[in-house]
Fold each of these.
Amino acid sequence: MPSDSSSDNDDQNPNAIPSPNSDSMDLSLDAIENQLESISMTSQAETRSSNQEEEQLTIANGLLNEESRSEVVDEFEEELSNSNSKAELSSEVIMSSSSVWRYNNLEAEEAEAPSSPSSSGYAGERGSSNGTTSVADEDINDDSIRESGNPGGSSSQEQWVPRERDLNEDDASISWRKRKKHFFILSHSGKPIYARYGDEHKLAGFSATLQAIISFVENGGDRVKVVRAGKHQVVFLVKGPIYLVCISCTEEPYESLRGQLELLYGQMILILTKSLNRCFEKNPKFDMTPLLGGTDAVFSSLIHSFGWNPATFLHAYTCLPLAHATRQTAGAILQDITDSGILFAILMCRHKVISLCGAQKASLHPDDMLLLSNFVMSSESFRTSESFSPICLPRYNPMAFLYAYVHYFDVDTYLILLTTSSDAFYHLKDCRIRIEDVLLKSNVLSEVQRSMLDGGMHVEDLPIDPASRTGTMFSHPGQPRPATDSPDRIGDAFFGVGGPAGLWHFIYRSIYLDQYVSSEFSSPINSLRQKKRLFRAYQKLYASMHDKGIGPHKTQFRRDENYVLLCWVTEDFELYAAFDPLADKALAIKTCNRVCQWIKDVENENFLLGASPFSW
Amino acid sequence: MGCSSSVPDRNVGRIGGLNPENGGPNDAKNLKVKLVVLGSSGVGKSCIVLRFVRGQFDPTSKVTVGASFLSQTIALQDSTTVKFEIWDTAGQERYAALAPLYYRGAAVAIVVYDITNPESFAKAQYWIKELLKHGSPEIVMALVGNKADLHEKREVPVQDGIDCAEKNGMFFIETSAKTSDNINQLFEEIAKRLPRPDSS
């Protein structure tokens, strides 16, 4: 049986990834603290090593060009102190007013604010009393937890298998404290609503502590955004009577974690609508857990997707690669039935869109699509039979329920029809029969299965145009090469050797279309751990490109011990590409231009065109 | 397994709600009825339905979302056929307000509880009241005590079920979706009790 939590393995065990500077990071908590302090703000908080170079690129004539100047950033030249003393730990609290409170003694601070009689905060922060560093402790224990808890450990990223939570865990358990990434939802009165690990009810004391922190700061007329303590970030999000908190030591940027809390809140709204606020108006001590009964899998699958699905930070959806005619056939029948009073018709294969259609003037936000498809895929009962269920699209109308008809055509492919009418089931069922007829007659479903096997764009297939070697940045419009033209490839079994110029992977996001296309993973990004590391690198890159304080940026070239990462943002698209760390910069830039051209050449297969008023 | 009875034959009511638009006239030999399954979460509503419709039992619990729609036709000894259009509703509290959507116009309601769980029996009584108050007056109701295979863990006595059913004019049976005990009997008994349209 495939393990559900290969990514959780990572979460629990980040230090297992060897990196040149991990030794120095492990030396002491002080070292980590120094690192944190020397980094001005979140966006810079990458694990930079001194050999990393960051270079400025400029854009000329719509092409990506290398500027001659380059600077080597050496923020970590300052020596990391090697003391084992834990008393020097400092933490910062960042408020919305951007004031920073510093505590030079975390022990003292912990004893004061965040600890309650029942929960004493994070033991992992403070180290053990016998003088060994707590980081080393965690390493050992995490390995044992991982091995006992998740045998197997080699599942596809997208496969998520629901599992029973360990409800015996609570904030006093060592295993609970070792978890790398916690999510909590609680009410403004401090009642637990959801916890990723452990039993919510046993975490009542811990929830009350979180609530106390939030209201303490609010009473001062401010708002707490994040607390940094050692390797941990505690990120807060307040949504009326609902408080969401993430406690993480995964080194993800604050913006990413906050975005994840927003999605978690959206998922709850999708299940209950925002009218849940009224329950709290009537009774501030309202217990919401019964209302969310049976939705554990929905939340844990969403949290899992924060570690592999680029849609969670790109705010865009992705399409299953299909021949243009095939997608048009599917689109036509969906259009046909939406004319009969259906709000949205969505045909999907796992998390990828085959086609979708909305009633006039109704537009579907990519985040809503992410939450909806997560809800459908993680609720097993939808696979058993056709279903009719109320759901809310938070970006469409957070106050009202829509009614969703859900039907699986095969194990991966499903149809969602949304309507405002609670009586429409039989009409939707008839629509589904019509759609199924067309899809079967025109072989759309078998094309979908074939595309699943073939995969999408492979970096090895990037057309090599000799003309591009002659100094011009722009390769000629090459021969269109359909992405699906690779019959000898069988899904995950295939691993390429990387693309030209050391290109390993790319993600291209079309801004007008709200869609992205991501290349298939290729050697050496084979293992889950490598995929997740690249995912996190993209996530950081995205956050730094969209940082409101120091951005927005147009280009970024970043070299570290793992990759060369190149990002290029224009009005039309964003390109994120990963190369071999030894890749030549000029060649990498040329290659990015080629990738963009290639994507344009095959856009018919990889994007749903005409889904928005814009077209490029 | 207890079995008790009472409901006299009445006419099938069809009023509003989630009812087939093109239901077609019921003739005396081929009945088509809307059936709703109600009860708290985890009592085995979906398991009963899937056992009846597909002959399957899946011990991994899959929480129903909203309501699932399935249909199954059975033939009776008098050569009539009955097509059940089954609304298998979610037991979660958040869907309680939607129940009328599914039971409105239903000809049959099956109220399920778990014999090892007294709370689910209390919830069953709530659903019975609700159906008597808001359901169609001609509705055929069955009270089902499920998980009868777990008799060592029984907490709701058979007699309690029988008494409750008798008081409310229902048909009572204990079933086990796991062993398939009494599942077909349940639906056959319901089919027998259905009012027959006048054959002209």
Amino acid sequence: MYDAPKSLETTLDQKTAKITARDVQVHYGDNHAIKDVNVNIEANTVTAFIGPSGCGKSTFLRCINRMNDTIDICRVQGKILLDGEDINDKRVDPVQLRAKVGMVFQKPNPFPKSIYDNIAYGPRIHGLAKNKADLDEIVEKSLRRGAIWEEVKDRLHASGTGLSGGQQQRLCIARAIATEPEVLLMDEPCSALDPIATAQVEELIDELRQQYSVVIVTHSMQQAARVSQRTAFFHLGNLVEFGDTVKIFTNPEDSRTESYITGRIG
Amino acid sequence: MTDASFTPPGRVPPPRHGSLITLDARTKKRNAAEKRFRMYGIAAIATGLIFLMVLLTAIISNGKGAFQQTFITTQVFLDPAKLDKNGNRDIDDIKKVSTFGYTPLLQNAIFAEVTDRGIETPLSKASEMKALTSASAAAQVRDVVIENPDMIGDTVEFRILASSRVDGYLKGRVSRESVIRDKSIDAEHLDLTDALVDAGVIEKRFNLSFITGADASESRAEQAGMGVSILGSLFMMMVVLVLSLPIGVAASIYLEEFAKQNRWTDLIEVNISNLAAVPSIVFGILGLAVFIQFAHLPQSAPLVGGLVLTLMTLPTIIISTRASLKAVPPSIRDAALGIGASKMQSVVHHVLPLAAPGILTGTIIGLAQALGETAPLLLIGMVGYIASNYPDGIASGFLDPNSAMPAQIYEWAKRADPAYYERAWGGIIILLVVLLSMNLIAIILRRRFERRW
């Protein structure tokens, strides 16, 4: 049986958490993918999930906005509280949850529509804009916050799929924040991007921290070290260690964490 | 490292794989195999093309005759003594004169053409001209007279249908040898026909009524047309489209996007695939039992035909729709769900538009398949001599007995008169043109809606 490190226990006591996960278990059919994960995600913080491939970090991320609902064989147990409310409660409509918890995916996936329509889609279906002018404003604001406004302001009605990979990913981030979520989940948002685009997205993540709590799954330990304040290390479905990023990367408590960040496993 | 493998510096070791310029035995063998395979491919395509060419040549050379018809142009004296005995131009009295009253007038008119031009012929009586004209000619003249009773007493120019034997003679189907035992026409008539063709009285012209006309009885091949059966096919296709597209698309969306993968959906899936492979005649007998014997829908009606063909088309549409829904990248669904769209919204707003070209192509292919289907129509009575004229309206279009294009072709091919053989080929040309234009529409729609992602 795995023992939680002391730092984890102390972290969980804090009452400032935006999201609290308790004893989360995920099964894919017979495969026990996530085992007893306890984690607190704070407001206005970037939390990074790191770990080798297949360790369950993306699976856990998808639990937070119930994207795993779309997978028939996936079963989620345990409690995940968002602002003290259980998101797996029967009364919770995942649609409402996802408006509050936005998500950016690994591969940029703009809709094959215009840039404007990509951003406007969320506000439209959630009824955030009263009229066209409102909607225009939301689109501009989101694109500015997505740090892509300057590049696309002259071609808002061009197709979103015509942008470069990095621009597409920033468009997807802008699309995710257009619905005014409170939490932003990012599943390896830079894995398909070159270093320059990655730097732009990282800069953006740091800015987004002012308004959202950001959870980012990444394969790059440098990236985790650069953008996050808190880091969780997953290994074989267990949450091995969770704490301040600086501490994880300089003075990890668990030997597995140390092996991973020094490149000996993974 | 041993001494044996040591190459002193400055000396390039001999290449292990031999020269690049000369091909080794293995490569030669591989290249030969590749060349052979390419030849097989070319041969296969060439064979296919040859068959296609033979087929098209046969269809066109046999069928093009149906688009031309022989007509006799003649001045008919509309004798008031025969057509309006009372002389008061009362329309009811005029209608009482049947086509038998008109036949002598036509015969006299043609006989006059012969004698006026001084054509020598052993045929000395006007009544012997009967073999030249179609049985429908009298009806044609009568219709015009009833429309315009004022014409009675005048001499009016008519272009009337020649009999199918005369038509066949001009098209090379009928010869002097073949008419020896023919009761309806003699070699003298053929001689006279030659003379009248020289005089410009008899000529071949484009036959619009083959495309627009109704079917005719066994003995009036020259009059038969595809028009009404084209309309029958059209009404059936409307039924098929209106029923199978929404049902098929709804079923596929449910199965593909909403239903959980379990034993039931597997079972349904297997059954849909099986339905696609069921011989069409089975659907025909099902339609006979359910729609006609149980539900008492009218026999031979395009509505029933459409219902039966819907059963046949549904599996095709469901399979192609599911395939095109599957082809939409899951990242698009994730993107929509991720910003809080409901399942329905993600499907309607994002997945369906991307799948639309595939769905449309599948639908049109399904419709084209249904359009060419004959076997199920046999069982619900849409094959046979269905003496129908144009339907009066939408309702009668669906409910009145009608035929369909392939059924009409089958029916003509079955008839004894060789003139119908030619019409069957002609009908195939029309059917193929309709099918090709449907495929063309499918390609255009595909191009129009296709988007990158």
